[in-house]
Structure formats: C-alpha cells, structure tokens
Inverse folding.
C-alpha cells in the first residue's frame, strides 16, 4: 500500500477556494498526512514592460502578501499540521516544482468548470497540471467546491479503478487500496473493450462471434478479479465515454486512472477527456509505459 504522508493543495484563492482547503484538510485527517497549501501568483498578461513594472513596482510583493493573508484566514480553524508556500510564476510549472521539492505524495486542485469552448481556446489548468506534476494528482469537480453544494463532505464511497489489464495497473492498485482502507470504499474494477478481440488475451479462432466475445469477457473478468477485491465490470465502446457513463449511473465518487509519467507527453485521450468533463473526482497516477 502506498503511504500518503504529505498532500499539496494547489489553490487559486478564488471565492470558492476555502471549500477545496477544507477537503484537503479532511483528506489529511483520513490519511494522517500533513498539508501544504500552495499558491502561485501568476505574472500579468501583456507586454514585457508591464511584467517588469509588476515585478519591480511593488505589485508582486503586494499580491503575495494578500495571498498569505487569505490562506491564513481560510486555515484559521484548521486543527491539522499545515504550512503554506507562495511563489511567483506560472501556476502549473510552479506547482510541479514545489511538489517535487516538497516531496509531496499527492497534489490536489479544483477544476475551474470551464466550458469545452473555453478550454479549446485557453486550455485547462488542471489538464496541464496532470501532465506536468509527476505525482498522483487529485482533481475535485467545481460543483463540489461551490457554496451550497449538495454533498459538501468529501466522500469516496464508490471508486472506479480504470484498468488497462497491463502491469501498469499495479500503480493504480496501490492507491485504490489506500482509499479503500481510509474511506471504507467500494471498488469497481472496470475495463473497457474497444475491439471485439484482444489477441494478447485470447488467440484468434474461427468460432462464432458470440462465443469469442463470451470467452474474451470471461478471461478479462478473471484477470480483474485477480487484481484486488471489488466489483468487476467489462464495458464495450470508447473508454472515455463508457467510464463517464458508468460513473454517472453508479454514483461513483472517484475515478483512478493512469497517466504517462514522461514529461511533455500528451495525455491519453481517455484521461484527457475525463479531466475536461469530470463526471466525479479524478485521481491520475503516473505510470511507466
């Protein structure tokens, strides 16, 4: 089981950020971990002259002082061990640098709830973070962090482990077991078949299509059961679509999925789409391919 002893909570200090920090505190209580509240003051948009003025004219220091005071105010009632860190620079790169330097076991952030149209033009901060932060990255959907949310308490009652049925699943298993222990979760081991025949699992045959499908599903289901205790499910179709549909129809609170751990690589389509639409919380785990 992978120990989680330090969690970095990356906050933009927006009006709803206090809810994210509350979730981070609760997560630390569950895992008996310490909390690092992190904020990066972003450089201003515009000309080089504007950035120089921002940095040398005192505005940079002013914004960092405001961030420090906001964090202190939001964490005033927190009873766990925590510390804060404030830097200046690109939030994605600064978060990755701080997580590595602090040896964080997990980074968490909230989605901004951008529409698909907005993401097309300005991109997704959490999507960029998932590619840049080289440790488990937990994204909380925006609707969980806004005031008046239906379920303000952090709950991971039902968890999907998005299995690829490759050795990389072992990375997902370690974290699934950690959540299972501390949240008493129900695990759903899910694999999505994109094609009717996987030659790595079942050899080609002239048997009828229905029989080949049945044999393949039985083999895949057996592999899932060997992985860890939990409900097993074989789905058919496009993984990113089927996982989202399954999550919504089964009241899933968290999806654990793998992500390429090589810097600069493009996120696999399945994880990228889940990050954009977030049917529930999503934990991406760096894996070796």
């Amino acid at each position: 089981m992978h120990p989680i002893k330090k969690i970095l909570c990356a906050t933009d200090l927006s009006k709803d950020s206090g809810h994210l920090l509350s979730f981070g505190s609760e997560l630390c209580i569950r895992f008996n971990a310490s909390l690092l509240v992190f904020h990066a003051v972003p450089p201003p948009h515009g000309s080089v002259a504007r950035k120089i003025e921002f940095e040398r004219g005192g505005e940079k220091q002013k914004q960092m002082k405001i961030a420090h005071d906001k964090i202190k105010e939001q964490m005033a009632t927190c009873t766990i061990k925590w510390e804060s860190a404030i830097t200046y620079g690109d939030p994605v790169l600064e978060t990755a640098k701080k997580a590595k330097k602090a040896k964080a076991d997990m980074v968490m952030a909230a989605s901004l709830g951008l529409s698909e149209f907005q993401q097309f033009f300005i991109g997704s901060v959490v999507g960029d973070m998932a590619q840049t932060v080289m440790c488990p990255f937990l994204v909380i959907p925006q609707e969980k962090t806004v005031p008046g949310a239906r379920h303000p308490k952090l709950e991971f009652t039902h968890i999907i482990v998005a299995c690829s049925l490759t050795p990389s699943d072992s990375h997902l298993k370690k974290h699934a077991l950690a959540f299972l222990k501390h949240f008493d979760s129900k695990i759903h081991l899910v694999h999505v078949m994109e094609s009717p025949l996987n030659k790595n699992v079942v050899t080609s045959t002239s048997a009828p299509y229905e029989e080949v499908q049945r044999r393949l599903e039985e083999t895949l289901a057996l592999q899932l059961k060997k992985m860890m205790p939990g409900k097993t499910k074989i789905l058919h179709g496009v993984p990113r679509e089927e996982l989202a549909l399954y999550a919504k129809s089964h009241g899933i609170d968290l999806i654990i999925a793998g992500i390429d751990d090589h810097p600069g690589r493009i996120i696999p389509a399945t994880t990228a789409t889940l990050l954009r639409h977030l049917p529930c919380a999503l934990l991406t785990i760096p894996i070796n391919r």
About this structure: The two ends are 21 Å apart (CA to CA). The longest strand covers residues 34-41.
